[in-house]
Each structure stands twice: as structure tokens, then as C-alpha cells.
Write a structure and sequence with these properties.
502 residues
């Protein structure tokens, strides 16, 4: 008999309650849906056993043969569903689940440094495997959500959330309790939000994890942010900015006083850039103090203050205290209000180099944002050295990116050359997302004498921006256009980041 064959596919499980899936999996028989039709999935090496079992079930599903890797991928998804649906067999099912990573079970058995030595408890093993898999896949956050019938675990990889596994409702509760225990939170309190921290050691590396628990309609949800250590803070060169931006940044950081701002939406890498700047200027003869919410990078050579609103330690209160500590360089995590903005600018005026972040879409609109906070024009022009607006753009996976053509009207509208462009496809190397890694892009707005004159003459943001573009300032939109032409990213990603923002 000849059956259709598929290779390197990412199939989704078809779970039918009437089938004994545990028995079917044991006979290497899985089920999926392809183009709206139900299919039985088998693998070459175990085909005869699978087909014998399928004949006994009498389902009438058509058969499809897949390669070993695709079969294993689908089998693991079935095991994840089983892990949740059959808690009595949790210990064996979890072991099967953990074997998603071939070396993981062995790793957990042999590792004495992972959270706890009680390896026998399946819930502990499951939580350990979540951390391990998140770190192995390069995730920045782990999301655990409770639904009406089941729970879901998702990982944020390269800025986008990707489903990791489903868990049964009872298991989700136990997983959340385990996370609360290691974060020193109250496991009996399920009505109010809770925030905590924990440290995990994996392969001799210690990682800080920030934990946030929130009660929702169907139960609690947890978000864990994996924070980096000082040895993981990148250098300014390794961030991937264009050479001219890095050169101008170095020039700005040589100033002994003044203010430098990094702007962009949440998750655009502002804190990472600021810490890279601090590491560049950090020398033993400088006193560097930061006030952050939260402290995302744990750096050895700088003093870091964690904002704590409950006890009145706000950005402005922390900044006031820092000024009495004889600092050379100050970093304020974010300028949120006029009080913080005012103290920050006055401290930059009195001989300190101050670095901070602001929430604006582009570099030039930071001028009006500061004015909206009640800061006088002369104070901004005399202290502000420069503003870097930045974004993180996902790069196309070079192993699977597909050639594509953009509509003629679109090419004309964007002023792009008529050439081949690339789109995301998805393969096992990029975990079927189509993207692998991210690239920092930015526009650097340097406040020079010409800009100061424009501000004095009452120019608005738009006029300043147009003047800067005429003088050769490369905008985020220009950088995205370059990446698109070079085939480094897709049109969809460029639009998402701000290709149309000019």
C-alpha cells in the first residue's frame, strides 16, 4: 500500500476522547487534522504495528507517513496533553514530557543545583523542566495562565509569545503553588496580586527570576521574567546598532554632565542599551548609581536602587537621595512624571551625567514630551545631549526564509526597488516561527547648536524632525527599509516595528 508522505512538518494533535490515546501512542499511532480531514499519523520504522492497531480501532481515518523527527514532535504534544489529563500517572507522564529534551531528565537527576533536591516529586520536576526549557530556547518570560478547563504555558522568545504546552487545571494550581513557594509568596492568598523574586542555578549559572502572580476569573496567572547577570550585559558594539550611531553614542558618553535619553515602547531594549552605556563608562574612579523599577541587570560595578512604592521609595525620592551620595553618573530607569523630570534635568545641569528612558515613539518628540511635563525650554536645550529612539526587529531565519514579491502599489508607495524580498516560513531551527534572533535599530538625535536655535525659535517636533532628516539623520523607518532590501527581515515585521512611521 502507498500512503502520502510528509517531511519536516509541525502537526497539531487531534485529541478524541473516545480513543485510548495512551494505548495508541504506545503502538506509535497518532492523530492529526490536515486540510480539514482527520488523519492517522504513522512512522516508517513502526508502520506495521501502528496499522494493526488502527485496524482494531475501526476509525476509517486515512493514513499519512511522516519522518522520525516530525513524528517525535507530534508525539511529544500528545504526551503533554496526557500529562495534564491524567494526574494519577503524573510521575510517569512527566518523565515522558520531560524527555521532550533528550538530555533533560538525565540533567535533572544529576543536577544538585536546580531549585531543590526533591527530584522524585513530579511537580518539582515539571517546574524545573519549564525553567530549563525556557533558558535553552532563549526565552525572556514564562507565562502560565489558568483557563476554564485547562492551563497553558507560553514562552516569550525574540519578543513574541509562543505556546509551549497545555496542562490540566489541577496541575496548573500545583505548578503555581510550587512557584509561590520558591518565590517566598503566600500560597494561601489567591485574591490579590503578589510579586516576588527567586534565584535558580542551572549548570553552575545563577539567574534571577522576577515573579508576578495575578488573580484572574478562572484562577491565577503567573509571569516570570528571567533577568540577566552582569556578565551577560552586552557591549554597545554587540547590540547591533549602525556604526555611526555607536560612534556618536561614544562621543555623548564622554561628557561629564548633561542628560542622555533612550526612548521606545515597552520591550524595545531600552534598559539593555542604558546598561551597555553604563558598562562602557564604568571605571574605578567613577561613582555610578542607578534607581530602577525593577533592577533588570545585576551589575557588580555600580550601585543599584530598587524602586519600592509601598515604602515611598519612588523614582523622584530615590533620585533625591542619590544626589547626596556624590555620584558622577546617574541612571534613572524611567522618567514618568514632572517631578522626576525636573530633578533629573537639574541634576544634569549641576555637573552629573544622567541617563534615562522616556516613552515616546521617535527621538524628536521627546522635546515636546519634556515640555508637556512642565520643563522650561531653556533647561532642555542646556542639558539634553541626545536622544536615541530604538526598536528590536526580528531577523528572518536564514535557513527557511522564502522568496516573495511585494505588490507593485506597495513598492511604489514605500519607494522600494523592484527586487526579490523575503517572507517568514518556519523550520525546526527557528522553532517554526520563521524568525531567529533580533536586531537593534535606532535613530540618534544629537542636540547641537542648530537644534538649540530651532528650540529657541519655537520650532515644533515635526519641523525639527524634517530639518534633522534634511541634515542626514537616519530614522527607524530608513533602517527598516534597509533591512527589508537586504533580506534580513520580512515586510510584515517591518510594518509591525514602524516602517510607515517615517
Amino acid at each position: 500500500m502507498e500512503f502520502p508522505r510528509l517531511t519536516d512538518v509541525n502537526l497539531e494533535p487531534l485529541w478524541d476522547e473516545e480513543i485510548n490515546h495512551k494505548l495508541a501512542t504506545r503502538h506509535s499511532l497518532l492523530f492529526t487534522e490536515i486540510d480539514g480531514g482527520r488523519r492517522a499519523v504513522v512512522e516508517e520504522s513502526s508502520m506495521s504495528e501502528s496499522l494493526n492497531h488502527l485496524a482494531k480501532l475501526g476509525l476509517g481515518y486515512s493514513v499519512v507517513v511522516v519522518d522520525a523527527e516530525s513524528f517525535e514532535r507530534l508525539r511529544n504534544k500528545f504526551l503533554e496533553i496526557q500529562t495534564g489529563s491524567d494526574f494519577e500517572d503524573m510521575s510517569t507522564a512527566t518523565e515522558e514530557l520531560i524527555e521532550v529534551e533528550s538530555d533533560l531528565l538525565e540533567f535533572i537527576r544529576n543536577s544538585q543545583d536546580l531549585l531543590s533536591s526533591e527530584e522524585s516529586a513530579p511537580i518539582i520536576k515539571l517546574v524545573n523542566s519549564l525553567f530549563f526549557q525556557a533558558i535553552k530556547k532563549g526565552a525572556s518570560d514564562i507565562h502560565i495562565e489558568s483557563g476554564e478547563r485547562k492551563g497553558e504555558v507560553r514562552l516569550r522568545i525574540d519578543g513574541a509569545l509562543k505556546k509551549h504546552l497545555d496542562l490540566d487545571k489541577t496541575v496548573i494550581g500545583l505548578v503555581i503553588n510550587r512557584i509561590k513557594v520558591i518565590s517566598n509568596l503566600d500560597i494561601s492568598e489567591k485574591r490579590v496580586p503578589q510579586d516576588g523574586r527567586t534565584q535558580i542555578s542551572i549548570s553552575g549559572k545563577t539567574l534571577d527570576v522576577r515573579v508576578s502572580v495575578l488573580p484572574t476569573y478562572h484562577g491565577e496567572r503567573v509571569v516570570m521574567r528571567i533577568l540577566a547577570q552582569s556578565d551577560e550585559i552586552p557591549t554597545l558594539e554587540s547590540l547591533g546598532f549602525h556604526e555611526d550611531i555607536t560612534k556618536n553614542l561614544y562621543r555623548i558618553l564622554t561628557h561629564s554632565h548633561g542628560m542622555f535619553l533612550v526612548t521606545g515602547p515597552t520591550g524595545s531594549g531600552k534598559s539593555t542599551t542604558l546598561h551597555a552605556c553604563l558598562q562602557h563608562v564604568a571605571t574605578p574612579d567613577k561613582n555610578i548609581i542607578t534607581v530602577e523599577d525593577p533592577v533588570e541587570y545585576n551589575a557588580d560595578n555600580i550601585s543599584q536602587i530598587q524602586v519600592n512604592d509601598k515604602v515611598g521609595l519612588t523614582f523622584s525620592a530615590g533620585l533625591r537621595s542619590i544626589l547626596r551620595q556624590d555620584p558622577d553618573i546617574i541612571m534613572v530607569g524611567e522618567i514618568r512624571d514632572s517631578e522626576t523630570a525636573d530633578i533629573a534635568l537639574r541634576s544634569a545641569l549641576t555637573g552629573h551625567l544622567l541617563l534615562s528612558t522616556l516613552h515616546t515613539n521617535d527621538s524628536t518628540s521627546s522635546l515636546s514630551r519634556l515640555m508637556d511635563m512642565g520643563i522650561e525650554n531653556f533647561l532642555i536645550s542646556s542639558t539634553l545631549l541626545g536622544v536615541l529612539a530604538q526598536r528590536l526587529t526580528r531577523r528572518l531565519c536564514r535557513h527557511c526564509k522564502q522568496e516573495t514579491t511585494l505588490p507593485a502599489a506597495l513598492i511604489e508607495e514605500l519607494g522600494l526597488p523592484r527586487q526579490t524580498y523575503y517572507a517568514a516560513e518556519g523550520c525546526k531551527r527557528c522553532d517554526f516561527t520563521g524568525y531567529k534572533g533580533r536586531q537593534a535599530i535606532g535613530e540618534l538625535f544629537v542636540i547641537d547648536d542648530d537644534v538649540k536655535m530651532m528650540m529657541k525659535d519655537g520650532f515644533n517636533d515635526h519641523q525639527v524632525r524634517e530639518a534633522m532628516k534634511k541634515r542626514g539623520m537616519m530614522t527607524i523607518s530608513d533602517k527598516l527599509r534597509q533591512m527589508l532590501i537586504a533580506g534580513e527581515t520580512s515586510y510584515e515585521e517591518a510594518i509591525r516595528i514602524g516602517l510607515m512611521d517615517g
